[in-house]
Amino acid sequence: MKFLLVFDFDHTIIDENSDTWIVRCAPDRKLPNGLRNSYQPGHWTEYMGRVFVYLGDNGVKEDEMKRTMTTIPFTAGMTDLLGFIGENKEFFDCIIISDSNTIFIDWILKAADFHDVFDEVFTNPATFSSSGYLTVQNFHTHHCAKCPKNLCKRKVLKEFLDKQLERGISYTQIVYIGDGGNDLCPVMFLKKNDIAMPRQGYTLEKKISQLAQDLSPVQCSVLVWSSASDIMSYLKLLKKE
Known about the structure:
The protein has a domain of 157 residues: HAD superfamily/HAD-like (Rossmann fold, 3-Layer(aba) Sandwich), CATH 3.40.50.1000. It contains 10 helices and 8 strands. The strands form 2 sheets. A 6-stranded parallel beta sheet has the order 3-2-1-6-7-8. β2, α6 and β3 form a beta-alpha-beta unit. The longest helix has 14 residues. It is globular and about 55 Å long. The termini are close together. Its cofactor is Mg(2+). GO terms for molecular function: metal ion binding; phosphatase activity.
């Protein structure tokens, strides 16, 4: 009896968007209008690449970025939830699929001592160049028309499950915890026995209820959360089963 917990990162594990939080490192804590308005839908990673160049051009160094990123608050109840999962790893495998990047997620999880809770993190690869600039790449290429160019979370989840099956690991239930529009694609992949946990008041919840109104509801069960303690209550029930 093993359960797979799939977490988004921004506005789910942390209560902010890590990519917009880094703007606190910019001069006057804001970006020039031209840069801010250069974002094109579906091309967030390229946009963040330009943001990182701007920060590098303004002398923002790695240690300052790290200091800033590790001040991001976790979502209410999340530190308790991650502690609980960490203590019950025999029941729960746990992964992150996120549109953030490897460096931000690494910094934040390690600073709070939660790195070992997660078996794998799937996100855009990031590195610091020899000149000290942060660079980020698209996670993969895919052919899904519903998802941003750099990341289809359904594809990531499906490939992870296939790989686990090859190792002889299958899951009693998948619990998908997220908030954003790009979490809908993997949620629509979930089966009847699985559960989607959208954050209350966020895009994912709205999109799931819109589908239900259009009479094409998702297959899985849906349980809305507003604090991570709601998620923990559900996981405690699973563990008892």
